[in-house]
Amino acid sequence: MVEEYDVDRLSSSDLSDYSSTNGQPQQPSEEDLIEVDREYNGYFEGPEKTLEMCFRSSKNIVTDIHPDKEGLRKLERHELDRICRRARCTILSSVSNQFLDAYVLSESSLFVYPYMMVLKTCGTTTLLRCVSTVIELAKKIGLELDWVGYSRKNFSFPGDQCHPHQSFNQEISYLGSHRSLSKKLNGNGYTLGPVTGDHWFVYVADQTLRSANLLYTDRVLNIMMFDIDESVAKLFYYDQYCRENEDSDDATRRISLAQTKAAGIDSLCPGALLDSRAFQPCGYSMNAILFHSYYTMHITPEDGSSYASFETNQKMENYTSLVANVVRTFKPKRFVMTLMADEDGLGQIKTNPFTALGEDAKVIVPSGKSRMLYKRRDSASIKVEDCCCMMGNWVLQEDSNRVSKIRGFSVDI
After folding, report:
1. 12-396 architecture in CATH?
2. Options 298, 306, 379, 389, the catalytic residue
3. Between these two residues, 67 and 256, which has the higher pLDDT value?
4. Which DSSP letter does residue 215 get?
């Protein structure tokens, strides 16, 4: 996805947020003050950074703003724009229901619940810079920080990232030394999976407890797919859908829907309210909401860095069919799957692909008259307070489409 946006510059108030752990000011480098993205060269950092922030009501409750909404949903559009500017992205469209608001961004998605905000950004965004802004705006409407989680897969192009995302150590240091955050956040960072391969970084503020208001959002499944099938990737190039003399906004709406239908994305979240967006020259984002649940997909089809992700917080006892349907849609050569859940949510999952053994650890995807077989190469998990984090790597077996004969018993006569 490629989208033009104003480069975020640190203001004087932003500079005051920088400090070391001993309280002495730490001046940002020149690169932090003015940042310029590298020229688009046909490659894009698809895997997203994900920030989840949970809040609880404080004594100073504001009730005169949007009386029909609760908690974070009281935030005005210009305030959400301010949050996104800090992360170096913009809001493009939105859908809402009685439980949450979902925003498609120039780089991924934003979900706003009354007491929780989930912000996902890809590319070279500066996601963690918005944390203090969210805390500040939440305080104005009578909310205080309750729980923070940050996670991302290791980057494919780490050299393209801006401060403070040039390494996981830098991200952890940023959170730990930020003056307005250090007293509120007391978390730790973890690495799940092989450091020589695909792995997952997780930060959890583990000295706080999730509010009882969040019991319906107790698990998040994320599927990150790499080297997707070329025929599927081609569906997400904008120009092939263009018509002459068509208004650009009308064209974007039509092409977004056409790509959704062509790939069968709408069938992955039946009954949900969808909001999709096609990008030029290529790329695609989609949010969908159904009651308390959200679904989000992001696709970067470029050769050499093709990627598709699917994430949902829908509560399910068995994710086998969902995972198979998502993987069948994109036919990747490999995928990384993660799960973040509280203990109660984890206990409700009857079939867990992260802990299954032997044949049950494989993901079998029907594909016409044949099948695609993905073998789990490794898995890892951690537990922080009541938060359980799991990740695993699955790789397509090259001979998985071959139909094997069933061996019978031999009888000696």
Report:
1. 4-Layer Sandwich (3.60)
2. 298
3. 256
4. T
